[in-house]
Amino acid sequence: MNIFRKKAVSTNATTPLNRVLGSFDLTMLGVGAIVGTGIFVLTGVAAAKYAGPALILSFIIAGLACAFASLCYSEFASMIPESGSAYTYSYVAFGEIIAWILGWDLVLEYGLASAAVASGWSGYFQSLLAGFGIHFPTFMTSAYNPEAGTFIDVPAILIVFIITLVLSRGIRESSKLNIIMVFIKIAVVLLFILVGVWYVKPDNWVPFTPYGFSGVASGAAVVVFAYFGFDAVSTAAEEVKNPQRNLPIGIISALAICTVLYIIVSLILTGIVPFTQLNVKDPVAFALSYINQNWAAGFVSLGAIIGITTVLMVMMFGQTRLFYAMSKDGLLPSAMKKVSSKSQVPIVSTWITSALVATFAGFVPLNQLAELTNIGTLFAFSAVSLGIIVLRLKQPNLTRGFKTPFVPVIPGLAIIFCVYLMMQLSTFTWKGFGIWLLIGLVIYISYGYRNSKLNNTANLEK
Predict the structure, then answer these.
(1) Which residues of the chain have pLDDT under 50?
(2) How does pLDDT run across 106-165, given as a tens digit for each residue?
(3) Which are the contacts of 350, defined by CB distance < 8 A and separation ≥ 6?
(4) How far, in Å, CA of 88 to CA of 372, rounded?
(5) Do residues 41 and 120 touch, judged by C-beta distance below 8 A?
(6) Mind listing the domains of the chain with CATH numbers?
């Protein structure tokens, strides 16, 4: 039973998908995925519960982990321009069983992250409507929680289906809409910076580390969620013009832009409002209301809705391309690789993703599942970084459009940072992650191994 069979590297593989994306589109796709829930929601919780004013250090630690990992992703993306991100890369570096584990792990990341983001969108949207005196009946305002009288989150389900309709129209149309929304939310973040900087009181930064370094580290493990999304850029590989050049530019540029914005926003946020008061759902808008700039707070709330919409769009996009890649390799049913002749998108994968995300977002309370998203992604980052070291040793002559500098130091640092952040997560999260991987192994043994394209090829050669 050869569970470690590997895919060969193919740099000129034909694809039924539409190659229309350039480096600017990819940068905007990355910023669209990264700037959203992290900056508009998590900053407040992380400051109040974990890091205090030292939130900036949490963002720097998480940013470094992702920066090192992004350099590794960039080398893989320039070497293997196919859909599937970490799943496809590990198929080449480690073999099928590890690729399946990574792919199944990414299903957890994209699926739960999309559902969590849809729930966050619902909260902001309902707050905006409440400002106009419009309220949903209580039973349809949030996921299943009989004690609170809620049973289904209708706005979350609606936004998932709206995003699905946009994605099913084609990558060019989705990319154009994403670029427009990214410019709007960057403008809103800049508005917060320009208004808020005049109200910063350095006294609010004292004490700087109220919970010690352990609080800073725990904060980093939480806010690392804010950086997820740059790996979604690599899932678009089969829809990129000149992927060997454009993918590394898109990945690194998106991460650099977002890191600078996060650091500035976290400094201003904790400088305006005492960190103990920041445990709110909308910390950026709350800070502007705190200094009586309600007009700006209104713009920020609207921008947050737009910002979170782009995150949801890119996360769901990543999930559909992952299903497509795994189906193409035979590890998932072949229907999931069906591409629409009109829009040139994997249409079955898109609607299956929509149904799964809508179910999670509509019915499942996701307060503890955000950590599962974090552990899944950090695991993927670690595997990709290790893969760079393995391929440099085993296949040093492969064509690489971009080379990770200082190998094995940079990949080694990525692994150390990511594993350290994983160790900060709760026992519940580790147990949930283990159960998820066990379910995945059962599916692989019962379906994936027998139907694998590599298995069929091996049988034909006998």
Answers:
(1) none
(2) 888 888 888 888 887 887 788 778 778 888 898 888 877 888 888 899 999 999 999 999
(3) 164, 167, 168, 316, 320
(4) 22
(5) yes
(6) 23-450 (1.20.1740.10)
